[in-house]
Amino acid sequence: MIALEVGNLDGLVVLLFLIMLAPPIILTIIGFAVRKNNPITAKVLFILAALYLVIGLGICGNIM
Q: What is the CA radius of gyration of the chain?
């Protein structure tokens, strides 16, 4: 039986880091852009970004 060997998995690691970090960064940028006109909406976006970061680092970080 031939052992199955996996090649380079750098792309998969980068994809997991993008899944963990990209949405909170985008939500934070949108929150700063909206902060002057709608402070309540910006606060909600900041809370969502923090929540997504904690959950993403917890679940995806645990998988890695």
A: 17
